[in-house]
């Protein structure tokens, strides 16, 4: 920190931190002993005993000086937060999980071609609208699907509590409607055509009960060419790939795609179970709002890029990945702007950063914690989406829990909730795009370099290539 005058509202008791020693850093083993090898700030118990963490690289100042890069996706790293609680820094855990309810859901076709379902949540702990961005067809909100007293089928469709796909003239939110549509739309010979194709590209659908089902190739293979590398083109651009009418495509897709069962009225607990196809835990990203990085093109941080990357990984998983075991995923978008201090304070923090302070010091000078966020809402939303329990008998053991996309060790334990309601079984690192592409793409600049250095050096973030 510089010796420049502090702002008038700065706490007189906050002294400059020459070396990380603030309370929020205690318990992060090697921050207090820099001579220890290992990734700075990695709590021992987040890492599986079978896994030896590599050194977190310092951030080279120029892309060309970086020793090596990975262009493929970062690997999952096993984690087990229950191994040794005593040495873990305890993140700020909420005492009780908030109650959340999904008010509405809608299909969003995106500019990348992938589709997602945007879920809007209300809760009983703040008055903000938090969001879940859901990729893939297998993840459903229990609170959304629950029957509401006195509502009509149209009400259900308007708030997004339908299965399958909406289209003009649809009258029921339930699955039976899809069967009607299939009967109406398919020409008499269309079934034969489909069965012929089923013989080749839909063979994975007919498997004995309990066996793995290749749902994504089932849902895309009728309309998607397969590349030589085994990846399918998303069936979303429409015109080029097929000579079928859209209705026929829809009907075929509906008839061949395994559908969740109809929702029994009045029984939210028995909302559609997850399918048996998922062989890996779903990919989850807990993203905190960043107006500057996501909307105002800021190169002070990589938040916008991280959001894009998370969506890319999840839509790749759900549409293109030849390995169908990684179907779908969820980005929980929490309205915790500026690590929970709000946009006004974050902008003041930016000015303090321009005056020579790092991101941690700037927060502290404004009398905020270095990180004011909590993750109880994320836990509750994941629960509502049926994700993350390790006792879910509907799922195969290897599909239980979640794979969390993050470098932030705080999040790993915090997202699990006070009673470990959700289980993080793997962590997937978020490597800056500029690192992965040798500086050809991605956010870059002096400010970003300092931002990442502070995250690694002072906040214990585990970024490695
Ligand atoms: N106070 C403050 N918040 C910032 C700053 N830059 C970005 N943010 C906020 O930081 C949040 C993103 O958190 P990060 O610490 O970048 O990353 P993370 O979510 O903790 O960790 P990852 O999961 O690894 O991305 C968003 O809410 C941003 O608005 C800053 O300079 N000061």
TrEMBL record:
GO biological process: riboflavin biosynthetic process
EC numbers, comma separated: 3.5.4.25
Any one GO molecular-function label of the UniProt entry: GTP cyclohydrolase II activity
Biased composition (Polar residues): 28-38, 229-257
Keyword Cytoplasm: no
Swiss-Prot/TrEMBL keywords: GTP-binding, Hydrolase, Nucleotide-binding, Riboflavin biosynthesis
Xref: Pfam families: GTP_cyclohydro2
Protein name as it appears in the record: GTP cyclohydrolase II
Organism: Lithohypha guttulata
Taxonomic classification: Eukaryota, Fungi, Dikarya, Ascomycota, Pezizomycotina
Annotated gene: RIB1
């Amino acid at each position: 920190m510089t010796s420049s005058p502090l702002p008038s509202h700065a706490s007189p008791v906050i002294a400059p931190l020459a070396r990380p020693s603030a309370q929020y850093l205690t318990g992060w083993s090697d921050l207090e002993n820099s001579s220890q090898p290992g990734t700075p700030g990695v709590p021992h118990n987040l890492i599986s005993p079978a896994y030896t963490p590599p050194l977190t690289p310092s951030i080279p100042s120029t892309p060309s000086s970086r020793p090596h890069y990975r262009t493929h996706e970062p690997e999952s790293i096993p984690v087990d937060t229950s191994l040794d609680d005593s040495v873990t820094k305890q993140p700020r855990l909420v005492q009780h999980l908030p109650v959340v309810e999904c008010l509405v859901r809608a299909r969003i076709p995106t500019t990348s071609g992938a589709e997602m379902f945007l879920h809007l949540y209300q809760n009983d702990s703040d008055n903000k609208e938090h969001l879940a961005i859901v990729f893939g067809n297998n993840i459903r909100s229990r609170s959304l699907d629950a029957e509401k007293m006195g509502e009509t089928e149209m009400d259900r469709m308007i708030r997004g509590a339908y299965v399958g796909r909406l289209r003009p003239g649809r009258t029921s939110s339930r699955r039976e409607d899809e069967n009607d549509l299939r009967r109406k739309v398919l020409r008499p010979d269309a079934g034969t055509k489909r069965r012929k194709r089923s013989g080749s590209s839909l063979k994975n659908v007919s498997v004995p009960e309990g066996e793995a089902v290749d749902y994504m190739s089932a849902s895309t293979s009728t309309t998607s060419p397969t590349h030589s590398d085994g990846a399918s083109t998303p069936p979303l651009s429409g015109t080029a790939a097929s000579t079928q009418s859209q209705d026929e495509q829809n009907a075929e897709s509906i008839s061949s795609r395994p559908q969740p069962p109809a929702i029994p009225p009045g029984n939210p607990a028995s909302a559609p179970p997850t399918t048996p196809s998922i062989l890996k835990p779903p990919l989850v990203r807990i993203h905190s709002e960043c107006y500057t990085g996501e909307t105002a093109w800021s190169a002070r941080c990589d938040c916008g890029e991280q959001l894009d990357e998370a969506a890319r990984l999840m839509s790749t998983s759900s549409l293109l990945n030849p390995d169908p075991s990684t179907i779908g995923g969820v980005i929980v978008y929490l309205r915790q702007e500026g690590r929970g201090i709000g946009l006004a304070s974050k902008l003041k923090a930016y000015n303090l950063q321009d005056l020579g302070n790092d991101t941690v010091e700037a927060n502290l000078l404004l009398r905020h914690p270095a990180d004011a966020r909590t993750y109880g809402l994320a836990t509750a939303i994941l629960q509502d989406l049926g994700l993350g329990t390790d006792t879910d008998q509907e799922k195969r053991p290897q599909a239980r829990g979640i794979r969390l996309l993050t470098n932030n060790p705080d999040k790993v334990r915090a997202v699990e909730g006070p009673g470990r309601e959700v289980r993080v079984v793997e962590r997937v690192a978020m490597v800056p795009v500029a690192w992965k592409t040798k500086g050809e793409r991605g956010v870059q600049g002096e400010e970003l370099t300092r931002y990442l250095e502070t995250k690694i050096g002072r906040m214990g973030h585990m970024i490695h290539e």
